[in-house]
Amino acid sequence: MGSAIECFAVNGIGDAYLRRIAGSMGSSHRLLIYLFRSCAGLLEAVVDELEKSERDILTHMLNQPDGTAARTGDI
Fold first, then answer.
1. Number of CB atoms found within 10 A of residue 65's CB
2. pTM value?
3. Reduced to 3 states, what is the DSSP secondary structure of residue 15?
4. How far apart are CA 68 and CA 72, in angstroms?
5. How much is the pLDDT for 63?
6. Rounded CA separation 52/54 (Å)
7. Contact yes or no for 11/23 (Cβ under 8 A)
8. What is residue 14's predicted lDDT score, i.e. its pLDDT?
9. 30-61 confidence digits (pLDDT tens)
10. CA-based max dimension of the chain
11. Which positions ≥6 away from 19 have C-beta within 8 Å?
């Protein structure tokens, strides 16, 4: 998923092609079609992954006493 995130970040979503993304992952576009059905399906999975990552970071910050994570760069 990291390669797909990086590909979308570098190329934007308008220039995202399954073949290019698959190539950067060392995979085939057919596997991505099988797993995600389309480029839009892959983008949806990427957005879900990024949202989960953000929630995890925020949860970690909120669980730190006195907000020390934000001050010390723990995140």
1. 6
2. 0.75
3. coil
4. 6
5. 84
6. 5
7. no
8. 79
9. 999 999 999 999 999 999 999 999 999 988 88
10. 49
11. 29
Token couple for 60: 């970690």
Q: What is the pLDDT of residue 13?
A: 84
Q: What pLDDT sits at residue 48?
A: 97
Domains of the chain: 2-72 (1.10.357.10)
Residue 42's identity, in one-letter code, is: L
Q: Are 68 and 60 in contact (CB under 8 A)?
A: no
Beta-carbon contacts of 68 under 8 Å, excluding residues fewer than 6 positions away, are 74
Scan for tokens 């590909």, then name that residue. Answer: 7
What tokens were used for 64?
């730190």
Other CB atoms within a 10 A radius of the CB of residue 6 amount to 14
Q: Say whether 35 sits in a helix, a strand or coil.
A: helix
**Which H/E stretch holds residue 21?**
helix 18-25
